[in-house]
């Protein structure tokens, strides 16, 4: 869901606080009759006894059918407010408001270039006042207000403009919008629209447009508690996938804005997390096609974004427990709420869940839940997947293999962060054995080119667990011949790698750091490194400086090589000869 953002770098509108006398003087210079006409209209409307109100209003709107002048916006705003007050007792004024709002869809008009500067404050207040018309208890008026805001992003000036008038630009209108409190007013009006689902949906679509347009709009929405309000109301009444989808896209925009910390704080309340959980359960019940599956994945994205907040009650709400149930092999699990297939959207869901593990593992409270849900077992199963039953394989074997590899890479990325904080579980599940088997398959001569990604991540996981210096972990690796296996892989890479291959350089550096950790404190392990290993290290030392400043990681490789020499120093007599 890549919402198209408008260019947020716009020319600033300088706003000057001009006195009323200055504005009147300017108006008199242009057209004193027009200014006086509006004054008469206002006085006429304030007289409750006259019967000429509608006639005068129709005449005024006809005169401005191509758009309102910037210099008249203050008076037009006052006229529309008077009409709004009369709607409850005299519904006929609603048609006048709707017609005026239709005109407001056109760009404002200026007689002079300086009008944009002089009347910027009036125009900003006019837009704020348009948002307050949402309080008018008339569905058609409310709908016109919402459509008015949408028009800011697309409407053009009429083609029949008089030569002496010019339309203001869309950029100017959007800047006025950012300075007004229109986004905030629209948000606050949402609570009153629960019994008007069609207008509520239009309002949400408008808020989605505003939140994707600029960070200033997002900040204004968040200042009014927008993230929490939208989250709490997205399940109200008759649940609609359109309402839910639009709400999630607004939340996504808010979480990607400059005020994302505030958005995360608002969505991290227990009420909001429960609302997300209810929405997820609802989507699982009605999931039938691609759009529903996409909606389910959007919910997971929002959940992952707020899971980074340590105060988010994802575990207390039991939402995390529900989600972790899908990390097991759903096609083999008869207790799953929903059977996952090999569709692209279901693959995205499983990858999102694996990414959620990576985010949650930073929270100590999540580790116990990981143990209860056998997260480590399932991660290692994904690293070395068992052979699937024939009835569970997709029609295309190539598709099945590709999906397995994507999940395997995601599991390895998660394991690099989770294994160090769940070391006991990692050892209980024979994590070292699993990784060494994968390492052997990846360095096999018959391995495909795509194995390079698995090899890179496998080495990262081994580096993350050996870096802890835990004697049991390191001894287990040595007992399984890890030193000889890693040394063989390193020599193989050193003999045929491209010096500009960043991935190969990273892997060689990490392998040397692993070997350094394993050999540093044990004489027998130093001996296992052998003369072949020393000769290989010497070759690294000789050619390392050539690429030290290349920016490709050779500086780290050089440092890891020196560290490796230090750790296996009893065998460095060979190095002295060279």
UniProtKB/TrEMBL annotation:
UniProt-listed InterPro entries: ARM-like (IPR011989), ARM-type_fold (IPR016024), CFA69 (IPR048732), CFA69_ARM_dom (IPR048733)
Organism: Ilyodon furcidens (goldbreast splitfin)
Domain Cilia- and flagella-associated protein 69 ARM repeats: 37-576
Pfam families: CFA69_ARM_rpt (PF21049)
Name of the protein in its database record: Cilia- and flagella-associated protein 69 ARM repeats domain-containing protein
